[in-house]
Amino acid sequence: MSVSNPTLITFVIYIAAMVLIGFMAYRSTNNLSDYILGGRSLGSVVTALSAGASDMSGWLLMGLPGAIYMSGLSESWIAIGLIVGAYLNWLFVAGRLRVQTEHNGDALTLPDYFSSRFEDKSGLLRIISAVVILVFFTIYCASGIVAGARLFESTFGMSYETALWAGAAATIAYTFVGGFLAVSWTDTVQATLMIFALILTPIIVLLATGGVDTTFLAIEAQNPDNFNMLKNTTFIGIISLMGWGLGYFGQPHILARFMAADSVKSIAKARRISMTWMILCLGGTVAVGFFGIAYFSAHPEVAGPVTENHERVFIELAKLLFNPWIAGVLLSAILAAVMSTLSCQLLVCSSALTEDFYKTFLRKNASQLELVWVGRLMVLVVALIAIAMAANPENRVLGLVSYAWAGFGAAFGPVVLISVIWKGMTRNGALAGILVGAITVIVWKHFELLGLYEIIPGFIFASLAIYFVSKMGAPTAGMVERFDAAEKDYNLNK
Fold it and tell me: Hey, which of 51, 82, 291, 421 has its CA 20 to 30 A from 65?
């Protein structure tokens, strides 16, 4: 690996820029609210792109193109499910959650919101939801670190162990220093880089394989079923892929963007920007994997790395088809996807440990400066645990993401969604929803029942638990009063 390597130079410049943004955000971070939610100051563009970038992790440029490359368009059901789920999340949850968190103790985290919304004096709801965040997010963080390691390993010929640390170091640095503002500002840059890469790359692959007609003929010649969206699928298989969309309602790192918006009025504009960005990115991702089939069938001599690990299809196409300087920018987009999501996850874990454990149970009167530094320390702790979990080179990005995504989607999705639209929900209903959702995912995953993605039974059973347990009791007058005030605020300002 030469120091004059243009890709290496591009990476170094990019990483330096992200860390610089972290130090700029450091100057605006004065208290725990700034560190965890940026002082609720995000405008519509930053809210939109930050929500998108924090969602689309390394699987966008590695896991999903690899799945399309291996199986054809039948894997694109996941993209359709994600688009539908994200839109419904923006439509039903985003604005309402923004006002509900403000009316319920100006909550900074989801456990904080649940505790205030349902007047949970025991702290049980806060503890259980914070534990769910730590368990599933540490797995999610590990997936991001694996994706970063794969990128550094294949780009610079590093050993997996070295690549593991190289990929994680920069993200840890700017999250540690700048907190939420650093994460949101860098997300905006990273979202721009990702969409550039995912629009440009499929166009160049198409040109390299002889245009649309030639490319499609080559894909058909390789396997006519590549065009068949129902290939090797079953009703359960399609429902499982579409079911990914349910996960949006419960992802703490995405919901935090809604909570941090400067006002409800920003949400509608942010929704339009975010959905446009998302549709273009997912379309580009599917196209990269799909057109890659034609390219590597025409050039089998360079297909070795992709045959060995299909999640490297975007990386190899970027290296083969572009000038090294442009390739460096495109490969930085993978790093952007990894860093944007990993940084959000580290921050959410840090906020759960700091706000929901340290401040609530250990140091109720801790100063704001102390809490910010505890938050920074927790970023390091979670990152080290995730790196240890990612140490197995056989890890696959999409597999790790799917488990964590299901865990959050089932444990928190129904609780968040129902809590912002139904004032009859109770504390015991919320508790039942989180426990039933999380336990269902773990049990279903372990026994692989019916071949159905575990988020679907988890979401359904959690929703039923919330409804029936809530019906056994009744919300307090204070809960109903705050809900009505927040709903009125939302309807006046949306």
Answer: 51
